[in-house]
## 1
Amino acid sequence: MEVIICETPEEVGRLAAAKVSRVVRDRGPEAVLGLSTGSSPLAAYADLARRIEAGELDLSRARGFALDEYVGLPPGHPESYAEVIRATVTDPLRMDPLRVSCPDGFATDTDAAARHYEEAIKAAGGIDIQILGVGENGHIGFNEPSSSLSSRTRVKTLTRTTREANSRFFETLDDVPRHCLTQGLGTIMDAREVVLMAQGSHKASAIAGLIEGPLSARCPGSVLQLHPAATVIIDRAAAAEL
Ligand code: GLP
């Protein structure tokens, strides 16, 4: 695992965007990107948008797979991750919406939707680079502590701490869905490359567990210690407990 400590949150985004651009250059215009919601990757998406604007990068033929989705939010719900990915990634990065997928959290059979998602990733040739943030409890995607380290895309129950952390996007805590569909830790580990970003002191303990802690389902992100091409890009505040 490569760890890069940056002076500013913007630098975190710039370095992560440079990695994604390099992967697209190496793999070709049809590269497959694993996309994450959350505030952590926003600076990277902004830098990718700047590169596209400058004509240095073209993602119009790239394929995208979102990491996770809430269960039960109807299509078009502004807090569904499908909408968040559209607003923060697909539109600004001028990706083709038909080439960007999200797990179907509104499916009547969510288990079948999870299996279908795994098959779609496989059919696309696998993910070339997975963009990740990390939750304060060490979760990646929505793989909460105790997730199997070899898990695949499936339905998970959100912990109260995650629902509380995400309640800022909803009117009340009760409005935050209780379940989600998430790529599993095994799915994430299959990506050819992983770039994880974290900024701020509230991520310091999760980052310490992820990088230096024992490999354990208690800190799901620690599984990345086994990934052959994982890069963790963080600012000084997030590095404080290393
Ligand atoms: C959410 C998402 C994760 C994200 C994490 C951190 O629960 N499911 O994919 O990485 O929380 O979010 P943020 O980047 O806003 O801190």
Note: The chain has one domain: 2-153+181-235.
## 2
Amino acid sequence: MVRAGTEPVYVGVGSNQANRNENIALALLMLEADSRIRVKVCSQAYLTEPVSEIPQPTFVNAVVELETSCEPASLLGKLKEIETLLGRTAGRRWGPRAIDLDILFFGKRIVREPELRVPHPRLEERHFVLYPLTEIAPAFIHPVSGLTVTELKRRLPRIGCPPRCVRWGRVPRWSTVSSATP
Ligand code: ADP
Ligand code: MG
């Protein structure tokens, strides 16, 4: 069971294949169906142009806050299981995907394993992570850099060219979506 007061865990969710909203809604339901996990908050959905040399459809992205009694490695195992169930096949790294689930932060923990790095090593350069994350956790502090999520978002334009990322609306059928307006 999930204990109250566990450290907040943030997971990025993205899809750019088939029914993107449906994939995201199903992934959240599958997380909720695990008794060790509770989805506390979900950001709004954002539309993001893919950052890839492979031509592919626009992504729908969101970030959720979880409470979990899982250790980081078991949570990653669960995320990979859901990716497989929703039809993500091992393809090209930056290719289109039915669902992508990434652990962004696991409280203040730092994990540096070959299979798992937390905080997520590329979150500072990702608009599609920092826009929804700022909506639900603006004051959360990156445990390595000491910068808040809001500060990281402000620094985005300095890192490469800004891809288009726009707020799109609620994740369908998701009732605990945050009411915050960024
Ligand atoms: P990205 O999500 O960065 O575009 P991929 O989803 O293709 O890249 O990468 C998947 C691999 O990244 C997985 O095999 C997983 O073991 C590894 N990985 C390392 N750190 C993380 C993390 N924090 N969250 C999710 N996967 C991670
Ligand atoms: Mg991933």
Note: The chain has one domain: 9-169.
